[in-house]
Amino acid sequence: MPKFVYDFTEGSKELKDLLGGKGANLAEMTRLGLPVPPGFTITTEACRHYLSNGSPPEDLDAQIDTHLAALERAMGKRLGQPDDPLLVSVRSGAKHSMPGMMETVLNIGLNEESVAGLAAQSGDERFAWDSYRRLIQMFGRTVLGLDGDLFEEAVEAAKSSRGVVEDTGLGVDALKGLVGEFKDAVAEHTGHPFPDDPREQMRRAIRAVFDSWTAPRAVLYRRQERIPGDLGTAVNVCAMVFGNLGPDSGTGVAFTRDPATGAQGVYGDYLANAQGEDVVAGIRNTMPLADLETLAPDCYRSLLDIMERLENHYRDLCDIEFTIERGTLWMLQTRVGKRTAAAAFRIANQLLDQQVITLEEAADRVNGDQLAQLMFPRFTEDPDVPRDLLGRGMNASPGAAVGRAVFDSYTAVKWSRSGEDVILVRRETNPDDLDGMIAARGILTSRGGKTSHAAVVARGMGKTCVCGAEDLDVDTKNRRFTAPGGEIVEEGEVISVDGTTGEVFRGSVPVVSSPVVRYFEGEIDPASDQADDLVRAVHRIMNYVDAARRMYVRANADTAEDAARARRMGAQGIGLCRTEHMFLGSRRELVEALILAHTDGERADALDALLPLQCADFVEILAAMDGLPVTVRLLDPPLHEFLPDITELSVRVAVAEARGESVENDLRLLQAVHRLHEQNPMLGLRGVRLGLVVPGLFTMQVRAIAQAAAERRRAGGHPRPEVMIPLVGTVQELEIIRDESLAVLREVSEEYGVELDFPVGTMIELPRAALTAGPLAEHAEFFSFGTNDLTQTVWGFSRDDVEASFFSAYLEKGVFGASPFETLDIDGVGRLVQIAATEGRARRPDIKLGVCGEHGGDPASVHFFHDAGLDYVSCSPFRVPVARLEAGRAARRAT
Ligand code: PEP
Ligand code: MG
Q1: 250-336 CATH
Q2: Contact 128, 115 (CB under 8 A)
Q3: 0.85 exceeded by pTM
Q4: What CATH number does domain 5-239 carry, 3.90.79.10, 3.40.50.1820, 3.90.70.10, 3.30.1490.20?
Q5: Is the pLDDT assigned to residue 454 strictly greater than 90?
């Protein structure tokens, strides 16, 4: 029989898989000789057995009995012993923290007899009956499945009938009365009396913890957080210590550093005369941990001493739960604590300074999501700037937005068109609000969580959003909202929304750019006084990851300005220069002329007019990226995107006809618009298909690139363009366009008398391209994975529609943990990337492999691309530092 039960003296922090996080850390603290109440942990393996067989392992009860006997010996009393009972807690503890998802039962071992023993031993009858009442309440709810409100309501009724406000105001008689009421409720709802046998209580509580692994909320949480569903939870059985034994007892939480800023010091909260759940439930106000120094100086000193030992031992910020029982300190939990993004960087840097961790470890203590958070603009922290806080909600999408409150999409669009900054305020949003969301600087909703429509769409757009601000009463009909203090904000009044903290202010709070961005932009010298400790921490870690990474990081940029910015941010070239915007604005007419051309001559005129304009674009971009590769993608979107809207044009023609005006040109245009209209344009005439059916279009573009390169060369530059062909599905498409391109390169080379020998490659954006990567590689010097289109085509998701229409429902139901357009779907899209990378390389060993879809700047995806052997990732300029960091972390992890 496997060993299913480990005493706290047997485990260690390395055994998280088997003992869960809580159990492993309790064992570790026990090994360190810290004051942990004795106990034992039932393994996750026992839970897995229970979950797959419907019953615990045969030997489990016997193993528990052995460990319980040892515990009883250590404590010198038996579980539920009538005159002096040992009481235990039964707590869940999975490998991954699942806050609030699973169950805990305290005070196991109490019954009508032992409650008297506890009263006698503690000399506190009230405490004994309060403990008993808590047992029935927790056991009733979690093990017997009674509605928790039933108990809460009875407690409230007892308090109000006695005119007391706090639980502690209930005396022995009141508590005895509640115990009676609770027991009656249990008998009525379950048909059985409340179990008196302490061992039976324990057995059932353990099962309830096992069962809580599969409770719907836990299943949903795991699905959303991508925690495997088959891990199971461990169960910790621990001798009770009591924080509710009077004023010299209490319970608290502590952090070894400030989890908000990383500063060293004493951080935490303490609640006298209370059990742990009182702190969490917020029933009474806690006091700052530092005040414990006067209340219980010995305990305080021991606690600080233990905190220091834990931090040195775990070599990281730890959070701690402790209880003081009549002047004796007990440790109930510790773990490496959560922290804000700024604290993560600062703490890593402090620990480096203290030589507690290495640079490699420091890079592992931070991540790209945290770095991205540090890069958003924020509201000033200047204490002299007055702020009028109206309320707060969830920090759904970071950033700082200021604008006039508007209460519907139509107004948002209208006002923003006339140059106003607006904040769209809604109870909740739905797909009809999309236009308003696009027009708004920020979004504020009073309902819905972090996976609500507003949150998902705002994050997708990179737009500031606070959602679920429930204390704001949003009245869209009367176009105003009311804050809890009664303050009313009418439409048109200015508000400020902080997507990083979830706060909403009246008026305009000044916005400052992030010092981390100013550092990346080269405006703050990390060695100067201008740099604060955060900037210095970021700088130090970035230096390390840049040296560590194997992958290059390029940027997606299609203007010289973006290219220059990307370069300042550390981009090592452009991985995707989209050329479509170069055909808009005043150039649109030339594209119209190209589309409407009847004769070769008309077409050639249109192309000749476009050529110098394109060439000038490329000259600028190549100059900004001089010496670094610039991958220019030939025109990709459907041609009709360059033509007028079909309805507007139809109306124009009809009106003109009615007035008897000449409509010849517009009619031709309208015919072209009809001809080019597609039901599914993303699957239609676009990408390489355009190059094949619109004569001269791609060759004009290649000529422009070649001429730009030749001119840059003449000017003494080092242009390194690369020609990229989009949406290729078959080798024949690639061959034709590539041959044409190479011919143009030769021509221009001769015309200018300079050697123009630059790579021609393809995007891999269609499943067929990925599956035929071997033959494609024979005609491509590089592949760039267009994972936006690849995700769209692998899933059959319209990328322009699905995020706003049904992704919030998919995320809520846990179909996926994150949008596959944000984080690469490794199992599906990733598999195709891997196949194409492997087969492409097999055919052409020196082929260059990169990615230029949005995933190139997503932390988890960057790790995958590293593992898949890609040479570079390319992402928007603002994400370049994130990709640098993650590429470095990925390289270190892999070694
Ligand atoms: C892609 O499809 O991943 C890509 C980069 O191209 P676009 O987003 O322009 O379609
Ligand atoms: Mg694409």
Answers
A1: 3.30.470.20
A2: yes
A3: yes
A4: 3.30.1490.20
A5: no
